[in-house]
Design a protein that fits this description.
It is a single-pass membrane protein. The chain is an alpha+beta fold. It has one domain: Cytochrome P450 (Cytochrome p450). It is 57% helix and 9% strand. The strands form 3 sheets. A 5-stranded mixed β-sheet has the order 1-2-8-5-3, sandwiched between helices. The longest helix is centred in the middle third of the chain and has 32 residues. It starts with a helix and ends with a strand.
Length: 447
């Protein structure tokens, strides 16, 4: 089976979906004995529910996850047990604060109004084509850095400057997928000889580490001011303040803060940018649905028709956009930004499908496959896992929906987006479901 995986590495998610359909939703992948690549892959909703929720305590990230995703360090995506619980509890309390939720909406709105909309207006006036995926990636990256670090890298502007640390995140994501596909000995040899994807990974990690450690150092040097002032709402500052109130912040290592912020930025930028790209592509292929969403926006947010009178939609106004919410959910079902999840049982277990798995068996949950298998969607139940499920469900789910809706409202109410004729639409070979060739579009004004 390994040759099939390698031959289909460029379309690995669709290849896995085909295998899962043929095997009833779960299959055991057997690699050559020397590769340590044996793994169970499933898209069976009952199995996913069992692993993520019902028997959550028996499923950790596992040693293989730690090897592959070593870049995450001890951040919330990789941490286990008490360290994970402490981070999750603190981050959840910070995200639930009204001040932070308002900060999210204001940050997203300001970026859209001052950067994205002027860029799209320029594109529409000149008749140029633009890679809207790149614009979304830059927008989401800027917002994520502001929310996590309190710093705006201004990657989204008319010049579209090269931002090394933004590009480094993309390089890391691509390399991480190949660690899943290649036998461990292969990618470790690449790392040893500083070649291939592993050299790309090493350079990218170095750039990101330098970027994050610089801002963490600045925060630590201004620690007293951080304690005294209350107008900074970014997550790093707020987290430092919480620990300081407990007497622990000065003793926390830079490595802990780096891992924390890296995980937060990665989560925020990827969910929003990938989701927006696939959502707008689907809209261009379904113009009738696009018009329904536009009319819903004009009905519940009439000020969008009055140039210069825009204001940030509040949460209640966004909740009225039911059709938009449904369309976003449908897009996320078909194209989940994080297409798979990696787990391993602590003790032997038997899945609802009848498959027995031994301790530390690599277990991959394919959300991409689960969202498009006809056998599942005939009778939906526990099926929508885009934001994970159970105790590790995504803390930023509501924040992401607020950002997605604000950006969608701003664009749909003002512009028509049309994909360049003949442009190839293919998922990228990455742990994040970007488009391999970007999304080249033409933009025209709606009013």
């Amino acid at each position: 089976m390994l040759p099939g995986v390698l031959l289909n590495s460029g379309r690995v998610h669709r290849y896995a979906t085909k295998l899962l359909e043929q095997s009833g939703g779960t299959f055991l992948f057997k690699g050559p004995w020397f590769t340590n690549m044996d793994m169970l892959i499933t898209s069976d909703p009952a199995n996913v529910h069992h692993i993520l929720t019902k028997n959550f305590s028996n499923f950790s990230k596992g040693p293989e996850f730690k090897k592959i995703f070593d870049v995450l360090g001890e951040g919330i995506f990789a941490a286990e047990a008490e360290l994970w619980e402490n981070q999750r509890r603190t981050i959840k309390s910070l995200m639930n604060r009204t001040s932070f939720q308002e900060y999210v909406a204001k940050t997203s709105w300001n970026k859209v109004e001052t950067c994205l909309i002027p860029l799209l207006e320029l594109v529409s006036e000149t008749g140029m084509e633009v890679d809207i995926q790149e614009l979304f990636q830059r927008l989401a990256y800027d917002c994520s850095c502001i929310l996590a670090l309190g710093y705006d890298p201004t990657s989204l502007c008319s010049e579209l400057p090269y931002v090394p640390h933004e590009k480094a995140f993309v390089d890391l994501e691509e390399a991480l997928l190949y660690r899943h596909i290649l036998p461990e000995i292969f990618w470790k040899l690449q790392r040893w000889f500083h070649i291939g994807m592993e050299e790309k990974f090493r350079k990218g990690k170095e750039v990101i580490d330098q970027f994050l450690l610089h801002f963490i150092s600045v925060k630590q040097q201004n620690f007293k001011r951080i304690l005294d002032q209350r107008e900074d709402f970014d997550l790093l500052t707020s987290y430092m303040r919480v620990l300081a109130e407990k007497g622990g912040a000065p003793n926390i290592s830079e490595e802990f803060w780096k891992d924390l912020v890296l995980n937060l930025i990665a989560a925020g930028k990827d969910t929003v940018s990938a989701a927006l790209t696939w959502f707008f592509w689907l809209l261009t292929t379904n113009p009738a649905e696009e018009e329904k969403i536009r009319q819903e926006i004009l009905t519940y947010l009439p000020s969008v028709k009055e140039v210069g009178k825009w204001k940030i939609p509040n949460r209640d106004e966004l909740k009225n956009l039911i059709y938009l919410h449904g369309a976003l959910c449908e897009s996320l079902r078909l194209f989940p930004p994080v297409p798979f999840q990696h787990k391993a049982p602590l003790d032997q277990d038997v899945l609802p499908s009848g498959h027995q798995i031994n301790p530390n068996t690599k277990t991959v949950l394919s959300f991409f496959s689960m969202g498009r298998m006809e056998s599942i969607w005939v009778e939906p139940s526990f099926k929508f896992a885009t934001f994970n499920a159970g105790p590790r469900s995504c803390l930023g789910k509501e924040m992401s929906f607020v950002q997605l809706k604000i950006i969608a409202v701003a664009i749909i109410s003002r512009f028509h987006i049309r994909v360049k004729e003949g442009h190839p639409i293919t998922p990228s070979a990455s742990v994040i479901l970007h488009m391999k060739h970007g999304l080249m579009v033409k933009v025209s004004k709606y009013f």
